């Protein structure tokens, strides 16, 4: 009887998910955490088909003309203006501290969660387990995020691991930080010894600003400006948003700026399918920084245009009287 009981105690927890046993072994070896406790936590997570459905139809698959309409709505702009004014002192303090224009902090929150109104209802463990064990195209990435989540100290989490909620991809809080971003960029701005991206506005604002600053945000730098190609403009192969050429080189190739730009400023050209046909934009270092948050150029342009609309509204006497 005692032998049977000892064997039962020594038996490792049953692994529900394919690849879980090896994953737990790796995490336990690297962190010293109890494998049985890790298995119990992961066994409590459920594969969610709705998560797999959601990741297969991202908003970034839409053309710019449709994508823009999701974020550049009067309701989102007006809410952003009101939010900025309501928290102006804190936003401008944090913006000055990190060298990031406050309207871009607000715009990130506006695009990601409508200023904290919708931070996601999926259990973070469900999301990362589903994508880490059941989504082969990006399983390695999401297993890495799951591993990071399990390694985060308690004071960097908004609550117990099995209660955390977020997006279908496992992003958390008003700024939708993935676990590695919480680890690397989240800030305890209010000094209470805890990073809370769900309830502390100082932590939320500073974490977004710190993310931008650490990725190379240029204080006072331009983000994007319209370009007008002529009929003989040189075709360009653009792989991402990295600034590659000085403005004057692109002008020589047939891309004319519609406003004055520093001829030596490093830039690249993005093409978007707008409502009235193709749109061409010079994009700069700060645009590239926004794409470190989300690699889609359309996402970065939506953040840029929302930020500009918010800044214009905040400084407009007409909207100030509303």
TrEMBL record:
The active site is at 112. One of its GO terms (molecular function) is peptidoglycan lytic transglycosylase activity. Pfam families: SLT_2 (PF13406). CDD domains: Slt35-like. Residues 1-15 form the signal peptide. Keywords: Signal. One of its GO terms (biological process) is peptidoglycan catabolic process. Residues 20-308 form the Transglycosylase SLT domain. It comes from the Bacteria. This is Lytic murein transglycosylase B. It comes from Dyella dinghuensis.
């Amino acid at each position: 009887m005692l032998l049977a009981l000892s064997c039962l105690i020594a038996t490792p927890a049953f692994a529900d998910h394919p690849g879980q046993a090896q994953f737990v072994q790796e995490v336990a070896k690297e962190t010293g955490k109890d494998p049985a406790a890790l298995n119990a936590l992961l066994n409590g997570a459920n594969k969610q088909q709705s998560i797999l459905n959601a990741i297969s139809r991202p908003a970034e698959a839409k053309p710019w003309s449709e994508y823009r309409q999701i974020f550049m709505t009067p309701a989102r702009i007006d809410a952003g203006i009101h939010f900025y004014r309501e928290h102006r002192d804190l936003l401008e303090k944090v913006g000055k501290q990190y060298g990031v224009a406050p309207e871009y902090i607000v715009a990130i929150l506006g695009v990601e969660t409508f200023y904290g109104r919708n931070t996601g209802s999926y259990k973070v463990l469900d999301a990362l387990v589903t994508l880490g064990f059941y989504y082969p195209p990006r399983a390695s990435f999401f297993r890495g995020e799951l591993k990071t989540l399990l390694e985060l100290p308690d004071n960097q989490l908004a609550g117990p691991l099995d209660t955390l909620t977020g997006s279908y991809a496992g992003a958390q809080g008003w700024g939708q930080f993935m676990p590695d971003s919480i680890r690397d960029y989240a800030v305890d701005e209010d000094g209470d010894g805890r990073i809370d991206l769900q309830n502390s506005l100082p932590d939320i604002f500073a974490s977004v600003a710190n993310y931008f600053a650490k990725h190379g945000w240029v204080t006072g730098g331009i983000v994007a400006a319209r370009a007008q190609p002529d009929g003989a403009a040189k075709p360009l192969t653009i792989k991402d948003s990295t600034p590659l050429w000085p403005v004057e080189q692109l002008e020589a190739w047939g891309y004319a700026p519609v406003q004055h730009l520093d001829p030596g400023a490093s830039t690249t050209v993005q093409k978007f399918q707008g409502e009235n046909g193709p749109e061409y934009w010079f994009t700069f270092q700060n645009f590239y920084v926004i794409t470190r948050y989300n690699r889609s150029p359309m996402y970065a342009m939506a953040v840029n245009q929302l930020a500009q609309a918010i800044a214009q509204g905040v400084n407009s006497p007409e909207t100030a009287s509303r």
